[in-house]
Design a protein that fits this description.
The chain is mostly helical. It has 19 helices and 4 strands. It is 66% helix and 3% strand. Helix 8 packs across helix 12 and helix 17 runs antiparallel to helix 18. The termini are far apart. 56% of the residues are buried.
Length: 435
């Protein structure tokens, strides 16, 4: 026990083993929904949901434990919402790329991730991105996720007259979504730990009672086989043989890059771990999530990144890596509850997506809306993601506009060379994908 306290510096951080374990459990309960949401999202691409379930649990466990042991941060990791939607809906469905090839794209992106992390290029790029645009990316992904939830739950549907409109309230499953959203919202307002997870459970119970959801075949079983997805990414690397797929790889790299960077900084600030506006041991933190992303691609899931729900564990006192390690161990335990996968319908996960969107949108308060040279590119990122139904397109719009508005405001010297380089990169990106 003393060695644990010493390694994780519990005394210096003014915390205890008991508090860290409680924080880890709280974080797990807050993000356990990803075990059921991720298979649902990636399943839309044709992937085996059972295999994705197991891959999600193992990748989340590995990333969280590495983050706890190496970086010693109370930050858990898991397949990121938003980028998994990009994987399924934009790449596989929109671009008609087979999921095997898309998974290979994640694998290649993770290799690049590790390389640029080793040479500390990742840290330099993070420093070059203005904080306002980082906040806009996080907030934009939040709106995109919320839009997916509203659509999956039937609250928002396609409308020929107005493009989108309010869904039919005569459909029972839509009311299931509304119930879940109201319950989850109340729990979150009252700061109940695991509010998202509890809301999902309540929605499932109502669905089972009303017959809108079929009864599960069991409760506990062996973890589903990884065979349908295991090492598929490695075996299909050769399929990345076109400029379009190279752009897909770069998109996985860029989106995961910015999302994880923003989340790490935000959570470290909440936990009081920032020092002189710098993140101590940031290299180890980035190495942890890069390794988890690599392992996740080989197991069979979309990119892994730091999770904003870690804020729940931090809120109850989690300050050390022991919190993240606890969360990781609980993900391993969670693998044996796969029979519940069938009862987690899109109406059950929709409220979770909407609430997570709200959590991510909180970063919008960090944007300097009073300066138009900042507000315009930030707004294009935030609004561009849900309206274009693409995270990458939203980022591209903002990164292209940012140097233009800064030069117009006679602040061009404040724009880093890296941002000017990204200006041309994203112009090429938009041209290739949309011409």
């Amino acid at each position: 026990m003393d060695s644990i306290k010493s390694y994780f510096q519990l005394d210096q951080l003014h915390t205890t083993v008991r508090r860290e374990l409680l924080a880890g459990f709280t974080t797990f309960i807050s993000m356990a929904y990803i075990l059921f949401v991720n298979p649902s999202v990636l399943g839309a691409s044709g992937m085996d949901k059972g295999a994705v379930f197991t891959a999600t649990a193992l990748a989340s466990a590995l990333g969280s434990i590495l983050m706890g042991v190496l970086a010693r941060y109370p930050i858990a990791t898991a397949p990121a919402l938003g980028i998994n939607a990009f994987f399924a809906y934009s790449v596989c469905i929109g671009m008609k790329v087979p999921w095997e090839t898309a998974l290979a794209g994640v694998f290649v992106a993770s290799i690049i991730f590790i390389i640029i992390t080793i040479f500390k290029l990742r840290e330099k790029i993070i420093d070059a991105i203005p904080s306002d645009l980082k906040a806009a990316i996080s907030g934009g992904i939040g709106l995109f996720i919320a839009f997916l939830g509203l659509s999956d739950g039937g609250l928002i549907t396609a409308n020929k007259s107005t493009i989108v409109g309010l869904g039919s309230l005569s459909v029972g499953t839509t009311w299931l979504t509304i119930f879940g959203l109201v319950v989850t919202a109340i729990l979150m307002v009252k700061h109940v730990p695991g509010g998202i997870f509890i809301g999902m459970v309540a929605t499932v119970i109502l669905g089972l009672v009303t017959g809108l959801i079929n009864m599960p075949t069991g409760l506990v079983s062996a973890a589903p086989s990884l065979k349908p997805t295991f090492m598929v990414a490695f075996n299909h690397v050769g399929d990345i043989n076109s400029l379009q797929l190279v752009v897909v790889v770069l998109t996985f790299l860029l989106v995961t890059f910015f999302d994880t960077a923003g989340t790490l900084v935000g959570l470290a600030t909440q936990a009081g771990l920032m020092r002189d506006n710098k993140l101590p041991r940031v290299g180890k933190a980035l190495a942890s999530d890069s390794t988890a992303m690599l392992a996740g691609s080989l197991l069979g899931t979309s990119p892994v990144g730091a999770y904003v729900e870690s804020s729940a564990g931090i809120a109850v006192g989690g300050r050390s890596g022991l919190t993240a390690v606890t969360t990781g161990v609980l993900f391993i335990v969670g693998m044996f509850f796969s029979p519940l996968l069938g009862v987690v319908t899109t109406q059950v996960t929709a409220p979770a997506l909407i609430i997570v969107g709200v959590l991510m949108a909180q970063s919008l308060k960090n944007i300097d809306w009073g300066k138009m040279e900042i507000a315009i590119p930030s707004f294009l990122i935030v609004l561009g993601m849900p309206l274009s139904y693409s995270i990458s397109d939203g980022i591209a719009l903002g990164f292209i506009m940012y140097p233009i508005t800064m030069v117009a405001a006679r602040r061009g010297k404040e724009v880093s060379p890296i941002m000017y380089l990204l200006f041309f990169v994203f112009i090429g990106f938009m041209w290739i994908l949309n011409v």
